[in-house]
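Suppose a colleague, Dr. K., hands you the sequence of a protein chain of 408 amino acids and asks what its three-dimensional shape might be. Before reaching for any lab equipment, you can write down a predicted structure in token form. Begin with the sequence itself:
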Amino acid sequence: MITVDEALSHVLRCARRNAAVRVDLSQAAGRVLAADVQSDVDSPPYDKAMVDGYAVWSQDLADGHAQLAILEEVTAGDVPAHGLSSGQATRIMTGAPLPAGADAVVMIERTAVVATADNPLGLVIIDDAPPRAGQNVMPRATVIRRGETILCQGTRIGPVEIGLLAEIGASQVDVFAPPRVAVLATGDELVPASQMPGAGQIRNSNGPMLLAAVARAGGIPLDLGIGRDDRRQLTELVRRGLESEILILSGGVSAGVLDLVPEVLAEAGVQQVFHKVRLKPGKPLWFGVLPADPVDKLVFGLPGNPVSSLVCCELFVRPAIAKMCGRSDVGARCETALLAADFQHRGDRPTYHPGRLQAAENGTIVEPLRWLGSADLRGLAAANALIRFAAGDRRHAAGATVDVVRFD
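The predicted structure, expressed as tokens, is then:
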């Protein structure tokens, strides 16, 4: 058996970044940029007011006092019709462009307006500390300059990046294509979730669970349904699954009489990379590659027990999807936390135990959850992480530092 780190190294060596595709901005969230993006505008595109108030020439208020003729009112979306001369002010709203001749904005709360016979807009009276040039003004191109690279290749696109891309006119962007991931649950005992199980049968929980895990990881899931322990049917389903960049099979990779998956995969041209990992749960994991152009197809044979299947998906399939999507954070994703309670571990393999992470005054703590083993999916329901306990019989005291892998 190989170690978890060795297995992950093999997976990432075989995974290749997908080609770039152009998508509308509305479809770009969660994707990774495949090219640098430059701005086609300055931002702001003009010197703009940061508050509601009056645009003034600061020298008119050298001592903080002035009565200035109101020239016009400019709101956001308007353009000043007149430049300012000494002794004048323009009423201005937040976000509006400054008129020529103005170099500061006095907040409206610091002003008063009086009517005059010769000016329908009246006079603004200002009695305040002398304004400095640039006060309450954001100069043109302070945030972004036209032609400047704003986001670089490899950036994962989130809400802030979507806003930036819209601001700089990138209505379409080049991103790395996410992999299509086919999921096939195998076993004569499986029936659909909509069906009441008969004697010796169980509902197919692995298929829907893995499809959801693939979507969360950024892949495009494809449901192949249930594959019976029949060589002919498995061969056809595997053929369909190999049309995707990744094929995940659940069950059929142990050592039972009907564990046909490795043989069927070999007949389809899939080359085994490794089988069995020093891991609990998840020891029977199988991984192979189908040579193809432009990228090799990856095949994961996951154990049939649901927790084993999900743990292997999190540790190995998720990083492969991330790499194919163009992401750089494709390592083991481990971080540390403090145990919230004593825990006794027994076993000859490193164990990934369900845990609940939460913030505390002294840092992040993780609580080991009650868990009955690889068939206990309910015990995983309250978990948001896996706690990694090293092989061997050992009591871990509360407050000890442990490695954890977050689900999210």
